[in-house]
Amino acid sequence: MVRIDLLLSGLTACIALISYLPLQEYLDPFARFFFPAALVLAACLQVRGRALPPRVLTPASILLFLYLASQFSLSRLVPVTADLLVVFLGVRLLGERIGRNYLQAFALSLFCLAASSLYEISAIFLVYLFSLLLLVAVALVLLTFYAEDPVSALPAREAKKVLTVAALMPVASLPLFLFLFLFLPRTQYPIWLTNAPAGKKTGLSDTVQPGSVQSVSEVKGAVLRAITPKVPEQQLYWRAVVLNAFKKDAWVREPVPGDAPAVARGDVVLQEIYPERTATQYLPALNVPRAIRELRHDASADGVFVSRRPLDKKVRYLAESVLADTILVRRIDRDFYLRLPEQVSERMRGEGRKLARSGKSVEQKMAALESFFRDQRLTYANTGLPVGGDPLDSFLFEKKRGNCEYFASCYAILLRLGGVPARLVGGFRGGTYNDVGGYYLVTEDMAHVWVEAYLDGVGWRTVDPSSWALGGGRSQQARGLSMYLDMVGFYWDKAVVTYDLDKQLSLVRNAGNKARDLRLPPWFGRLMLLALPVLAALVLLVLWRKQRPPTVEARLLRRMLRLLAKRYPGEIKGDEGLFELSARLQDRHLARFVGVYGAAVYHDRPLTRAEAAELNEIVREASQDRS
Amino acid sequence: MQKLAKVDEMNAVLEELSSQHLKGKVRALRLSLMALLTGGHILLEDIPGLGKTTMALAFASALGLSFGRVQCTSDLLPSDITGLSVFDRSEGRFNFIRGPIFNNIVLIDEINRAMPKTQSALLEAMEERHVTVEGVTYQLPEPFLVLATQNPVEQVGTYPLPESQMDRFLIRTGIGYPPEEIEKGILRQGSIRDEIMHIPALVRSDDLVTAIASVKEVYVGDKVTDYTYAIIKATRNHPLILAGLSTRGGIGMVDAAKAAAYLHGRDFVAPEDVRDVVHAVCPHRLIFRPEHEGVDKEHVLNAILKEIPLPLT
């Protein structure tokens, strides 16, 4: 035997918990701890078979409401509401176990889950939503049993049947779900933005100032995912921003002076990129991006693309890149690219002068610098970075350890000192290839800075000074569970979150076009006109036959009982004999009906034609009798 | 539907008795009449003073039947019930003096006080409907109904009927306290024993015989038989029950259901007739497993009945 009340309480606890979990991290500490405490207390009360009476709960609710509402302000609209919802849900669990309270608990749970979607839209929401819908449907069915008899118990077999049917209901609604998904309006970003973009520290920034921090923490957050074929590891550079000028000692970006449009030759790679929300508006793409599509943006001649709107919601864009190490540019503003920071140490100036005086070609100068870097035996590191008065000098000649910013800054400054125009390129190096999903996952710890040096009359040559460090070289391949988890999240974003009004419209437009272009043979329409009603009629007939009781008697009885159920709502329980029912209801039609009907059925003989006609007549009269 | 013989008269008796003289005893009266109509016997199990004797008396006089009464004690002998031969000196031979059992309605008060020997003599007479004394068989009158009473509370010096003998009674029922209003009325009025002695007979004896004959004619269909059998089978397979309904129990159910249908004015048995008599006919025939003896038999029967749907089509 399965006790309905226990099952129902358990389900309600699960439902409440499911709706609390996604909201939990955004709650006030009070609400966060109140709910689990209430849940545990409710479980204890359930075990003892007791509940808190309304005369305790109602004042408690009012006090809690006043306490929470006192923190209310326009800017805290959603957090306070979420706290209230969760606290009330907790209070509801403690109350008497009656149908109304259960229904309120279900409603509050749904609201809590809805509230969580104001904060975060991720694939896990779908899991919560589906489990909640499933459990609520089952619980509602159980509630009908519970309302009928609070201490009822079902045999295990029956309970299984009830649960199966109840669970099938939400499953059956799935197609409708998908259908509505295509048409209902949606949001692409959580409506209640809890400083989400600012909260995520991006590894990419539009200033580079080595020596400002002693260590760089490795944040593993995703930056973007790009669907693209696999690219050779050494060409896996994601270009986002070009830093070309100095503000004091920091590399910054200034508007690009009259560069001729860049041309690059090489293999063209198309990428479909889904960036995470960030505070910057640069659109990274594989080096060297040639064009960006399907997102409004501004392009500059140095291969930097900036989105016109903030990337505070999930978007996607297509990027077209050329895998080349040289960007062909005829003519540049040499003076602009030779400017120097305010402070350059004597030792660096000396190296630069040595380079400038060597009178070699640009390529030779670059080679000379490379060997200089290698001779310095520099180490790549993210901690214990040189800081202080002149961090770059300290990096090159003393500490000899630093991250990409030190390598790139030093190299670019030395090039400029040596008379070679140079600039920094910020972006990402590497990427984790997801073999199953066929996309690269780029995380924030892959943020990288490298250098482009100008070869006269040729163009910008990509150089990555960090690669001259001792050891070095990063390569990763996604493995195991994390790969699948990341993929689920990615496809959720791809299929659901970025599915927006444009796509909805284009779907409708496409469908319209397809329908217009559809060519069918001329007889097809007429045939369909004939066939469809016939088919529909056949289906209806089969359904009707299946549902229809097999005998005249059973059909007549069913009609009569349905009529009675309508006339005396809630009176027909189905466990009574006909004569018994007739005696109880004192219905004259029913009395006549059972007289004729019982005489035949309990005499083990079929209804005669006259009797059937009489019964029909009785049913008809009963249906017309409005008294 | 053809009219059942004498059904109105029977219902009139019930109506008259329960509304005029024996308020609040409709159920017991009805069951007694059913027992009489099917030729069975009834065991009233209740504490003394709830009007068992009054009911039996009123019942007998309203039906115009002769009434005999046996008050059981531990020294009651079988011959005290059946009667015995006494030597008549003037005629020079033995004359058989008939005992109280030679009446249409015999009230056996506190049957559990009689010793087993007397009990079994009585039960035998109930079953056989004749008495054999000193080699001569005497037929008992028709109709014949034994109304036995038993006090379930008092246990000292009694010989409670074993289950196997309870099976001989078609119906076992209690009387219960009358509803508050009716009881207050009775208190105001005082005992009505004298008044009952003068209830005029509402029917004649041969009316009853006709009625009994037409109860026998009531039709029992396959559906009802199946339903009855389902109940019997369920009691036999029930985990708490050691011995379920016997075949005699099943026959009793059908007989009682026939009488119920007859009193409802039907010449066929409906499944609800069977279900309604289950509580009167079955509980005393069920033997529970020793470890479950305390279980309420009515509850178990209710659970069984709930499981079996009434055949409606």
Automatic annotation (TrEMBL), chain A:
Organism superkingdom: Bacteria
Coiled coil regions, renumbered to chain: none
Residues in Transglutaminase-like domain copies: 396-467
InterPro entries: Bact_TGase-like (IPR052901), Papain-like_cys_pep_sf (IPR038765), TgpA_N (IPR021878), Transglutaminase-like (IPR002931)
Spans traversing the lipid bilayer: 7-23, 29-45, 76-95, 125-146, 162-184, 523-544
Signal sequence region: none
Keywords: Membrane, Transmembrane, Transmembrane helix
Pfam families: TgpA_N (PF11992), Transglut_core (PF01841)
PANTHER family: PROTEIN-GLUTAMINE GAMMA-GLUTAMYLTRANSFERASE (PTHR42736:SF1)
Protein name: DUF3488 domain-containing protein
Species the sequence originates in: Geomonas propionica
